[in-house]
Amino acid sequence: MSQSPLSSQLDAERTAILEHAAASVLAVESQRVRQSAFVWRGGLLVTAAEPLEGADTVRVLQDGNSNEAEVLAADLRTDIAVLRFPGTPAPALAAAAAAPRVGQTIVALGRLAQDLSASWGSVQLSGGPWSTRRGGTLSRRLVLELRLAHGAEGGPVLDLDGRAVAMAVRGPANQVLGIPIDAVEAAVSDVAAHGHIPRGYLGVRVVPLALGLQARHRLNAGHAVLIVADVAQASPALAAGLDIGDLLLAIDGDAVQTPDRLLGRIHGKRPGETLRLTRRRGTTVDEVNVTLGSRPPA
Amino acid sequence: MAAFQPEVRAALHSRLEAGGLGVAFEIDSPAGLARAPAELTAPLVMTGMSWPETAPFLAAARREQIPVALLLEEEFLDARHAAFRGGAAVLLPWAVSSAALAHALESVGYGLRVVPRRPAAAADAAAATAPASLSLRERELLELVAAGLGNKAIARRLGLSVNTVKYHLASIFTKLDARTRAEAVSAAARRGELML
To answer: What is the pTM of this model?
Structure first.
């Protein structure tokens, strides 16, 4: 059966996009999963952070060779991991100039061992800023209408110009989500500049207040309360006037649950951003605004 | 100065004076603090009480903005103790020398807080029951993990080999019952072993 000129032209254009991008898409194997990565700039690879499950190194397959790649940063807030590219230099992908539009045609690329996969589809939702479950903030919430091929998580999502608009990751309920490419660019810039992705730092050690004490002082009924056990020297906490024995009742208006939740809130912000703590000292409750810093070098 | 029993107050009184310290007033209940002279800035020294009995004194003293020095049984002398976390300025053993007590009370005037190094016996007992705590080096390393640094960057920062870093990390993971870096960092935060 012969193809119409229009469809064969479309096919040729689609094939050209894949051929152009193919060398930039690599297969990644960690202990538990196979996923994909793509070359961004400066010899750095980008992939999805969550499936790595905290691995320090992964194997990157390229042209039948397997090389160990160091995980330079794995940011669970945004699900972006940055790897040092170990193999033969490959061309970097370029970012699309504009944010993806609803209904726009896209292709998610992946690589399983040596084989390239391409899943064509469209942008199902391109919403406003998105606060992720893990405390990250992304410029857009992108839901993609396509079936992601096996091993394609962490691969790039391209527009019809062959430019990257997002990284594909699996979301809840078999959704395919796009991590916007500006977040990828920001993460790679951070790693290039600092060697890691900067996280906020407050400078306190906290422990949950014993339940008996909490009941006696009728504090935050039903919620945990954290008590400041230590304040670091020359820290943002010290500058904001936090002291040992202060009780922390809420962070940015939300009840404090556990020390690791507090850590999540702190790490969810960058140095220079502000955290609002509801603090009780003696019988006085007040709001303390702290400008987060970065963790001092050991 | 505060203590429930008159004989304890008498003993404390003579020890304070032996250390060259005057006693402005004595009380046996938190309500007594309201009678404290308004210009009083010296610490309230308390003893002969258990922690729950001490708590209301501590709260009352805090309202009056009077620092508190507690003389306690050796086993409670720990910066993690609720009394210290609750704002007591000084924790010292009941048997502390008059001179050491005088020094501690003077330090409070400079805005310092005083807690003794843990007695060895108490530390051993605590170590036997508590989950293994991190060594200084492990804590230092975990701070860098928390900052988001990779093993190579940590190795460079601490002047260690990557293998040594991995060795320490494995020990940290075991102690904190963690499988990943993120789990280790959260676990240390939960246990109050990490600066946040």
So the answer is: 0.62
